Amino acid sequence: MRRPSASDRPGHATLTRQAGWFAVIGVASTAGQALLYWGLRHWSPPLVANLASLGVVTVLNTEANRRLTFRGSPVRAVRAHLVAGVLFVLAYLVTSGAVLLFRHYRPTASPARETLVLVPSFALVTVVRFTLLRLVIGGGTGADVLTHTCRHTVRRPRE
């Protein structure tokens, strides 16, 4: 009996492609947001730099995921960006809380150190954004995203 290939499992192939694009877009988004925050931090307070960097990256990340990761989806751009906008508020609270907490304990820290503290928060926001976009745009479920590596190992009997 031959082992099923990715072409035999179209859902697996789609999720693999989406995960690949997510990784590329997510790394670029996290790096872009960190660089933008760091650059803005030289001229503005932490919360303003965070707001601006998060706003720019949210729009670009959402559009990149809509066009590349979830290409062919019937979901309109407006809906995708509305979902991302809701997440933007939560992301701003999380990342701002992280930078304010860090500055409370290290008030004289450089913008570079602030940025290093924020990178894990930026990465977390990117993962949550992908998961929500997958639910809204990709038609997947959260379980699809979280159990991707386990799903393809389960064999179902052919009928």
Provide structural commentary.
The protein has 159 residues and is mainly α. It is 75% helix and 0% strand. Helix 2 runs antiparallel to helix 3. The radius of gyration is 18 Å and the shape is elongated. The two termini are 14 Å apart.
Notable characteristics:
159 residues; 75% helix; disordered C terminus
Number of strands: 0
Given the C-alpha coordinates, what overall shape results? Answer: elongated
Class of secondary structure makeup: mainly alpha
Q: N-to-C terminal Cα separation, in Å? A: 14 Å
Oligomer: single chain
Please report the number of helical segments: 6
Order of helices and strands: HHHHHH
What is the CA-based Rg, rounded? Answer: 18 Å
Topology summary:
Blueprint: H1 10-41, H2 46-69, H3 77-105, H4 111-136, H5 142-146, H6 148-151
How is this structure best summarized?
This protein is mainly alpha-helical and about 160 residues long.
